[in-house]
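new request in #modeling-help
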Amino acid sequence: MKRFLCLFILPLLWVSCEKEVNIPIEYTDPKLVVNGLFNTDSLWEVEISTSQYIYDNSSIPLMDDAQVTITASTGSSFALTNQGNGLYTSQVEKPQTGEVYTIDVSHSNYVNVRASNELPTEISIQNIDWQQQSVVSGELYRKINITFQDGPGDDYYMIRLAATYWDLGYDTLTGQLDSVLVHYPLYFFSQSPAVENGSANDPQPSITFKDDLFNGSQYTIDLLVEEYLFTEEKEGMEAIQISTSKISEEFYWYETSYQAYLSSRDNKFFTQPVQVYTNIENGLGIFAGYNTRIDSIQIQ
Amino acid sequence: MQSNILRTVLALALLSLCQLALCQKATISGYVTDASSGEKLIGASVYDSKLLIGTTTNLYGFFSLTLDTGEVELTISYVGFTNLKETLQLQSDVFRNVSLHVGEELQEVVISAAESDKIHERTQMSTITIPMKQIEKLPAFMGERDILKTIQLLPGVQSGSEGSSGFYVRGGGPDQNLILLDGVPVYNASHLFGFFSVFNSSAINNVEIIKGGFPARFGGRVSSVLDIRMKEGNSKKITGEASIGLISSKLTIEGPIIKDKTSFIVSGRRTYLDILAQPFIAAASKGDGSKVRAGYYFYDINAKINHKFSDKSRLYLSTYIGKDRAYTKIEDTYNENNTIYDGTLKSGLQWGNITTALRYNQIINNKLFANVTATYSRYKFTLGSDVENTISPPDSAAYDERYGFDYLSGIYDWSGKIDFDYMPGPNHYVRFGIGNTYHTFTPGVNTAVIEAGQTNIDTTFGANSIFAHELALYIEDDMKIGGRLKINPGVHYSMFLVGNRTYNNLQPRISINYLLRENLSVKASYSRMAQYLHLLTNGTIGLPTDLWVPVTDSVPPVVADQYALGFAYSLRDQFEISIEGYYKKMSNLIEYKDGATFFGNSENWDQKIEVGNGQAYGVELFVQKKLGQTSGWVGYTLSWSNRQFDNLNFGRTFPYKYDRRHDVSLALVHELKKKMGKKEWQTDFGLTWVFGTGNAISLPISAYRAYDATAYNQQEKGAYNVIDNFVDRNNFREPSYHRMDFSTTFTSSKGKFEKSWNISVYNLYNRQNPYYLFFDQNDNGQRVLKQLSLFPIIPSVSYSFKF
């Protein structure tokens, strides 16, 4: 409908004129930007860059000469090594479930920044059922029901779906041309009341939700995917991969605000701009933990 | 001690009885009308110029004035009409209809407002009435005079986006204005995405806006009441008016069916850009073999009929029907692999209001007036497309296919109410009444039809209709205490029943006017208002998809408390000057969640919004001159309007988008008249100028790299996004808005005929006002902020004649 309406609004804008305007935006010193999401499966990996004045046209600088240290709540501490392009990684250390980690980043030209976050426990999935069909707004969907046990306290979740195919590509480990598993994100939505983002008219590649409605109890969440994926498109598909993550509260706020930001950026004319959440003291970005479980639906 | 009290009470009672015996009272009641047309005059002043005791006519032109018996010097006056003075010996109750004649320019003194109608005498504050004659002489946009755009020129009333008919009163939203046409709510008051209002000025008799100190008889919205009354129709003779403009033409005919008993008025207008554009569209599609029709138009019709059964009873039936329609029709025939496809694609969207009011007036006795009203209001938006194909394969019989889709949303109201005006004496004017509205909300129904081969689907889906009752009761008394004090206390009670929920609100109201000097008064008011409907809108422009929805469990009614204090001063019977300060506190306002949008899809709408609070305060200065060769007004508003939502802007208070620190408006009309024998010439000049602080806007101060948490691999993570860092909502200001419009109208009349040419220039000095701001790159590849402006200087011309 939006497109249809735009057809009638656009002619108005066509007769309009545009010009540069000078609204003074006060220059603020750049801040260090930390982007690091950590989970149990991988080594530590954090990107360090800086923010940039809004009228600055150069590319955003990546920082390769910062000091990056991770400290666990147990007191152990280690430095991350720069790999170029602003990327810092650990040698052997991996995040541990339930542990709280603090990142400290310092650089001689910028104010030091710090953030702390916990790596949540793994989600306890009890059943995945994908045999049901459902008609929504006249369209046929496949309904994937995931039943899981929520723990005590506040918990936050994110679910993604992807169709996986074997395709010719470069192996990320060996760098060789090989048959690699390629993920194509699937757009879906949920009718479960706990989920606020996405709808039949606005499917998303991921959903995020919190446990306000089912705290401490068993809950079944539904995911609706267009049925043709299971019939017409299944040729060559390896599986449908379900990534179910328990995420930290900070990750939740970052992800929901970031998705809203992307949505508003595409609808600038109709929405208010979105402020993206950050948990970096004196800086910007996100430092947050998540714990992912991957299940596959073999539909061949 | 007890016996002393008893003695005093008895003495007072005796004194009262003596007074009653000595001072017999009698009531003069009747209607005040325009002598030339029989049109009822609303708000005309009727008073005893000796005792300076008076009243004003109600919405139906009725008055009732109870005075001591004896000689009465009755004066009846109405702005723009010659005063009528009459001395009569009042012995018993009198019913008298009075006709006033339009005042001549030379009689300026006698056509000024009467004492009781002057601004410093009225109890009501924060209320402005604009004479229709002034509206008609102000500059027109593309030849169309617009009541709502004139309203936007008043202090405390702000326009939204450039060209839009939406208005914002004292920090409230556009959905918080109760727009009444003959007492019936109009839910979408705009044509063409808000660039024109639905009100055809030719059919309108009276326009009044109330911004605060709401009398108890009004309810249902929290920020303003715009009360528009249609003409009743000339009861003396058939008259007409026609005009031809750049984009539309209109025709109005009114007259008696039975002289002085039954009269009617019909007024219609239609745009014709679609008709003019057809040959060009047809020519453009000629080359490719298809036949294309496309266009956009709007029309509206106002009609009213009224019948006088007797001097004491009258029936009115009025209706408004308006529609906007955009359409395309493509007929195409082509051959593919020897199969002939013959198809028609029809698509369109249309929206419009229908309002109807059936009213019956009865003067029950000379002090009690009753009005019974039944109304219907409908706003409907539909969007649809239909594809029909006839497919003729080379080796088999031809067959048909059809694919259709329709979307419908809207609101339907049936309402009934009874209102009483009770005037027991000159010191009391009591109004009370009861009404109920039955709302039906259709927030989005889809219909799909597929007829292709063996497939035959005809399905309806979408949000279910919601039904609600809105009940209202009120009582108010406009009373005078002594010679200086007037108070209008009242209470409005409303109840809203939706689903299994019932909401109640008791809304106290009070307005006070204290006369400090002969022509200066201090006024104060408090009012509580409640609103049970929310408008889902995208805010930037008024789209036809904007949808009214009722309150829910998670979104309670909006409640606003408003306090106002001001001074009113009448200067030399010519100028009305008022200065008012106000403070308004609003709770349960809605705003979209970050990133959420709405396009006619009401599904789970209450999950897309945040509920919060707002406050607005400011000072308004208004100087108005209604009469004379030069008339008009100057308004200035200094105001603040803020919002606070727990989940927006990290809970911090932020300025409302239409928070406008300074708002200045000027509207001037100047008349020049010349007479030669039977022929008269008149030249009117109209000029308006507006200035407003730029709208609040959110701008980023920096940018930084995002982290895509949904990326599946390193390559995807490498393709980073940039996040613009917005530190605060609405933290910057757009460039200020200012514009001057000018018009001149040349009118010549001879006998019954009058013709006029109007030349208007919108945006006289071609100011590029901001409509929308966005970041872009300039020719040097630099990131810059750009502004989109809509309307440059737009001249227009229209021709009209009256007979």
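bot summary: The CA atoms of residues 30 and 109 of chain A lie 10 Å apart.
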